[in-house]
Amino acid sequence: MTKMKLVLTAAVMIAVLPMAAMAAGENNVGSCGWGSKVFAGQKGLFPQIGATSTNGTSGNQTFAITSGTSGCTQDGAVSSNWKTAMYIDGNKSKLAQDMSKGSGESLASLAQLIGVKDADKVAFYRATKENFAQIFVSEQASADQIAAGLKQVLAADRTLAQYTAAI
């Protein structure tokens, strides 16, 4: 019975650690805390898991966030980049159509997902239409390329730059 528990525990850890690393973000090595310092400059799954595990097992990331140390900030912004990436990936063709004309349901959903305020939606729609070729660099553009293009377009606009954190 104890062998079964050990196997089950190992299986859970194998399943959970990559999810924790993904939740930390793409190649950000734990985002902040001691783990981000220990594994700084390294890319890939294993450094992310190591950084996330270091932060999780020692509990230092919570202190770092509340104190603003070890690379953490206290800006209160929590972003959902992975949700945005998943949305873009699942709606590429619809987004391409909507961005090319500056309106549409999928574009409105993207605006809502990244938190665009009602007062800024017209500027958001216009920016995606006017910069369509910069956002969709090719017909085969990946979700990451589209997100990077959109982030670049928004960053160049004073009003819309505030929404880049969610991309």
Q: Could you please describe the fold and organization of this structure?
A:
The protein has 167 residues and is mainly α. The chain has 2 domains: 2-67, no CATH class; 81-166, no CATH class. 63% of the residues lie in helices and 0% in strands. The protein is elongated. It starts with a helix and ends in a 12-residue tail after the last helix. The model is unreliable at 17-29 (pLDDT under 50).
Query: What's the count of strands?
Result: 0
Task: Supply the number of structural domains.
Answer: 2
- What is the percent of helical residues? 55-70%
What is the averaged pLDDT score? 78
Indicate the multimeric state.
Answer: single chain
Detail the poorly predicted runs: 17-29
Shape: elongated
Number of helices: 10
The biggest beta sheet is recorded as: none
What amount of the residues lies in strands?
under 5%
Question: What order do the SSEs take from the amino end to the carboxyl end, as H and E?
Answer: HHHHHHHHHH
Radius of gyration: 19 Å
Supply the helix-strand structural class.
mainly alpha
From the N-terminal CA to the C-terminal CA, the straight-line distance is 46 Å
